[in-house]
Amino acid sequence: MSKSADGTGLALLLLSKERLALAAGRSRIAEIDHQIRERALALRSLRDGRNLPQGGPQEDGSAFASSPTPRSGKIDALVSDGAQISQEVSALRALRAERDLLQGRLDAYTYPVLTLPNEIVSEIFVRFLPSYPKSPPIIGPLSPNILGQICRKWREIALSTPALWRGITMDLNPFSDFRRALGLLDTSLARSGSCALSIRLECTGVAPKEVAPFVDAISSACARWGHLALCTPRRSFRAIVGLLPLLRSLSIMSLTQFSRALEDTPTATRAFHTAPLLHKVTLQYHRTSPLSDLLPWARLTVLIVNYIAPERCADLLNATSSLVYCRLRVYYDIHHGPQSLKSVTPLAHLKTLILCAIGPHILPNFLNIFTLPALRRFRATEALIQPDPAAALIALVVRSGCALDELCVTGSSLPRRIYRNALPSVGSFRFKRGLDKKGAFFGVAESEDDTDGGDELDIGEDEDPDQE
User: Fold this and answer.
1) How far, in Å, CA of 252 to CA of 262, rounded?
2) Is the pTM of this model over 0.85?
3) Which residue has the higher pLDDT, 120 or 264?
């Protein structure tokens, strides 16, 4: 065994002995506290039983000098009780002295973690939180506030580390303490210093007048927005005043709703054109056309829409010619009858396309609207590549001239070999029997995997090209 290994083993052994000694000291203090309580009760009982002074006997027994002595038997009893009380007092003093000694040793002990430089502790704190741009809750066990509740030194380090406060998640509901929540938001914004912010504000059933102060507080820091997700009532949003030099991603409920929120301030409708880094947009709903001029569509490289009618896809995608990653959750209502589908202009840069159907209805020939020369990864619900899924995929590859590397089919009912035989050049396949569940605003839940033993593929939230 090497000397370094011997040294490491010795250090671990000493550390283990230190921990055992500390644990033994704490245990002994708890035991002493119990004994002190028991002896104090016994002493009180003796004093009450003989009507002795509450100050207790002196060590020389002088407390009994002035006691009346009508009979010698009573005097003997008092002397006996006095001696017992003196013993109890002496035992209490000894126990308290031992406790003070042990507590002093514990107080003087310096935990190894507290000997680390503040810079190292600060870095550990940052890594404790979700990786930016994911934002932790503003309160709770996984929030930065919890780090300031351990000890004074950790609180000082947490308060002096702006990166801890750059991610903010607020989930409001009608039962929220709005005053306290707004105070926490203001505090986090102040503590984040000059850091770029990742903010997520989600409101469920909250009146616009309650949400407006939170939106105003967030808007006051718009120059530091790095990632913004708003699920708020339309009337709660105000005009954006100022440039957005750091904004990289934006999530909003509805483009139409957001545009109407700013319609009273014409200059604000192009506010996001002042965001040179904005490349990712997530829309919960996109139901209407034509497109608003709110966003710089041609600069977007990532687009996620969680609810879109098939006839709206072409208009939206034709405006986003620079896309590299696209995920669409398509809602098709068979009761509305067949829809006229326009072709999408070839998306020359799109490498990943995910098409998820909301509901089990078959949408025939939907895949025919796409031409994707750069496509490498493709995922689709089988209902969206009907009536002949294998033929539709072959036609897409031939029409696009793409070299597809990875394929995932959800809601699959066909034998796996049909896909493999149709596309032998694809290296990775993955199949899921169940339909995709309806996605929430900030994420999409997936059904259980059902692989056929081949190479696995999972194109989902983890593949979203927005991690920093």
Assistant:
1) 13
2) no
3) 120
As a whole number of angstroms, the distance between CA 367 and CA 258 comes to 30
Instruction: Give the C-alpha distances (Å, rounded to integers) separating 87 from 79, 80, 82, 91.
Output: 12, 11, 9, 6
Contact 377, 459 (CB under 8 A): yes
Long-range CB contacts (within 8 A, 24+) of 81-87 = 81/46, 81/49, 81/50, 81/52, 82/57, 84/46, 85/43, 85/46, 85/47, 85/52, 85/56, 85/57, 86/57, 86/59, 86/61
**CB 370, CB 396: distance < 8 Å:** yes
Q: What is the pLDDT of residue 154?
A: 86
For 183-240, how does the pLDDT look when each residue is reduced to its tens digit (9 = 90+)? 999 999 999 999 999 999 998 888 888 988 998 899 899 999 999 998 887 666 666 7
Strand order in the sheet with 302-308: 167-172, 197-203, 225-231, 249-254, 280-285, 302-308, 325-331, 352-358, 377-381, 406-410, 428-432
Helices 208-219 and 178-191 pack at an angle, to 10 degrees, of 10
| Least reliable range by pLDDT among 1-15, 19-33, 274-288, 399-413 | 1-15
Tell me the pLDDT tens digit for each residue of 48-60.
765 544 444 444 4
Q: Residue 43, Cα to own-chain centre: how many angstroms?
A: 55
338: how many CB neighbours lie within 10 A of its CB?
9
